[in-house]
Request: fold
Amino acid sequence: MAESDAFEWRGGRLELPPLGVEVVECIEPAFDYFPEQGAALDDLRGRIRRALEQVVAGGDARRVLLWFHNPALAKNPLVCAEVAGFAAARGAAVVMHHHDFWCAGRWERLETLRACGLETPDAAAEVLFANGTRCRQVAINLADCRTIEPYFQGGVDYLPNPVVGTSAGGGGAEAGKWLRKRTGGRPLWVCPTRMLRRKNLLEAVLLVRWLRPEAVLATTSGAFSADEARYAAAVRGIAQESGGSVVTGLLDAPGAPAVAEVLAHAEAVVLTSVREGFGMGFVEAAAVGTPVVARRLPQVEPDLEALGFVFPHRYDEVWIDRSLIDVEAELARRRALLGGARAGWRVFGSDAAPVCLDRVDGAMAFSRLTLEGQLEVLRHPAGESLERCRNWNEELLAMEGVALRATAWPVGGRGSVEEYARAFLGIAESMPGAAVAGDAAGAQRAIARGALDPREVFPLLL
Reply:
């Protein structure tokens, strides 16, 4: 089967070719994020339990394989606990496919875990990793895979996202017309994302103002979860004040083109995240031949390099001259955020080092500023802030006014859909025949230790 025939999105649904496999769809709102649920715990648990039983529908549960995505982010610990309990009681197998982890800086999740009856991180780890079930732990990136592997001997696999080279045909004439109407014919630099703090979107605003001031910067989505509301409001405020040079939720409008078409029409894709699990934005831009301007991410680079990708326009930090902010006020804000986060750190036996990572000669990293500090920098005219910061940012400003280069699609077809399917089937075939127990708490602590490294602590995420 050719990749183009393997599947197709139609009307927001994944259409599969005839495979001789029955697909049963069960939609249960109780699986949604716990903080946004209004029902009582017992009611939610019952609804989750009934949905899981519906999967078996009177058959042999030992023939059921649950593919559980992103469990250890703890967005809904009740689902994690019920899946683990169901698998342990009925003998179902579970693929725990980890994209992110709550203990990697999402300290506010402690409150969610406790509200769901998981009073300690060690107790949470048991259900977030479905310990004591017929399970395998699967990581989406090499860094996480190598971190948790020692704690589940022989029970950890690496399954990165599939990467498929596609062509949007130059983006399509209709998509181009649609975009020109919304940008006024100006160049488009785009962030393919919704509004999340870890996307560090105000850094993208600053980059475009410095490197391509005549361009429009747009996020493809304006969506955000409840715990991102304050950050999303700040980004929307910048957009409203920008006179059309910053647009949020470009593709939220009815009749909007597909993301791939927009990326194909864009002059550049901007990726300023401080953390990513895999970095699909890099791959999506390469697939349509659009240049990428991006931060270097140590968690992402090994995976992309293993697939053969080379991205020429990257930088380490955007360095800000201290004259652009009230330094004492900014340090006070940092101290307050650090104080609030210490409760989370202490559960892992750490008080964490101060977050600054300022240059020895006095510049401050934009990514290490608080939200208020970033907004303060953006209040300065772009030309003024650029001149004050020029000497700190030689690598970054080498991109100013140059023709950006797209990333060539790697030769060899690594990471194809077929390769992904074969890898997943290999994992499914290697599921243990009986329940296994690893050191789930140890794995969680190892992830937390990495997150508590001062280089991984960002005020935006506290």
User: Anything to note?
Assistant: The chain is about 40% helix and 10% strand. The CA atoms of residues 135 and 317 lie 40 Å apart. The first helix runs from residue 3 to 6.
